[in-house]
Amino acid sequence: MTAHPAAAHPAATGRPATRAAAGEGARAILPMVVAVVPFGLAIGAAIGPSALPDAAGWSGAPLILAGSAQLTALNMLDGGAAPVLAVLAAVAVNARLLVFGAGAARWFGSLPVRRRLLLAFPLIDQLYAVCEARFARGDLDVRGRQAFYAAAAAVLAASWMAAQAVGLAAGAAVPAGAGLDLAAPLAFAGLLARMSWSGPALAAGATAAGVASVGVGLPFHSSVLAAIAAGVAVGSALGQRGAAS
Amino acid sequence: MTTLAVMATIGLGSYGLRAALLVLLPGRRLPAGVDRGLLFIGPAAAAAMLSATVATRAGHLALRPVPELVAVAAGFVAARRTGNAAYAFAFGLPVLWLVSALPL
To answer: Which of A1, A65, A131, A222 has the smallest CB count inside 10 Å?
Structure first.
């Protein structure tokens, strides 16, 4: 009887393992990069024709690192809304980041506060989804998780900023029928399709989708936040009932 | 308030949201209820944003045109079958171009 080939090569530890985790993170985020680049191009292309200064509009890419909030602010400012309202609406759209922070605390809770403050900066939907799926396997220590996360974040953020810059520069050259304005729905459809579809998760998604549509008139674009809260509440309640039975 | 100041303020607020619980939570174990709830943030957030971008426009209920809905559905199915989000674009956009070109 021969040993499994993998058994002859014990898992790498220390720096090589960290480097391997970083490489894995950089590769794992690539499908998300493909998904966000058209969205970034679309936002960049939208900045050009607006009345806003190009550089200031683009600055939302590195400063906010969240397309839906940036687009919300750009649309409101371009439409003449008061800056304070644009800030409130965009931050409300980003309120979901609060719960992503709670999720990331499970991965990085043992790290020093300064390090956690640094790791908080790039936290966003796509990065959270990729890390959650990878870290659930439970075979990375905190250094490995940190390396995976940082590499994935660097690739995602660099691609995001570059895509917006290209969209801004190319602007009018992109044909109207190219479908760039469909980038956001396609990105979210792809994200949703990859998620677990247990009964409670399906219910959470269906509830959130319904509330986001029905509550579209809620002030400060808060329908998305309300939808997420309702979806999580329904999913949790059904999950708890399933666990109890 | 300049556009740059607005972007910086939103960035600061967003950073506060990201960092708040990551820094404040002790990091060992979350209460079971919170831990369970976190499982549903992903599906709920993705579904909410999908719904908001497909079924609403400028603060009102408004479905996108049929070719775009067909494209999003095709992208969703492709991503679901392959397990790769990038296929939503690889299939969705060509479907949009094809359906838009049909003489309907």
So the answer is: A1
Q: Which of A11-15, A54-58, A95-99, A213-217 has the lowest mean pLDDT?
A: A11-15
pTM tops 0.80, yes or no? no
Complex ipTM more than 0.90, yes or no: no
Distances from the Cα of A168 to the Cαs of A43, A72, A156, B34, in angstroms?
8, 17, 18, 41
A85/B contact by beta carbon, under 8 A: no
A175 dihedral zone (left: phi>0; alpha: psi -120 to 50; beta)? beta
Mean pLDDT (chain A, rounded): 84
Boundaries of every domain in chain B: 1-34
Distance (Å) from the C-alpha of residue B92 to the closest C-alpha of chain A? 7
Tokens 């990069």 sit on residue: A33
Is A135 within 8 Å of chain B by CB? no
Residue A26 has what DSSP assignment? Answer: H
- Mean pLDDT calculated for residue range A178-186: 78
CA A137 to chain centre: 20
CB neighbour list of residue A107: distance below 8 Å, 6 or more residues apart: A131, A135, A142, A145, A149
Q: Three-state DSSP class for A5?
A: helix
User: Length of chain B in residues, anyone?
Assistant: 104
Among residues A70, A85, A71, A96, the alpha carbon closest in space to that of B7 is found at A70
Q: What value does the CA radius of gyration of chain A take, rounded to a whole number of Å?
A: 20
pLDDT the model gives residue B48: 85
- Picking from A31, A64, A185, the nearest residue to B84 by CB comes out as A31
Identify the residue among B9, B51, B76, B91 best suited for mutation to test binding to A, counting A beta carbons within 10 A and taking the highest.
B51
Which of chain A's residues have a Cβ under 8 Å away from the Cβ of B69?
none
Inform me whether the C-beta atom of residue B66 falls under 8 Å from chain A C-beta atoms. Answer: no
Say if CB A163 and CB A36 are below 8 A apart: yes
Of residues B9 and A170, more confidently modeled: B9
Cα–Cα distance between A79 and A13 in angstroms, integer?
A: 55
> What one-letter code names the amino acid at B18?
R
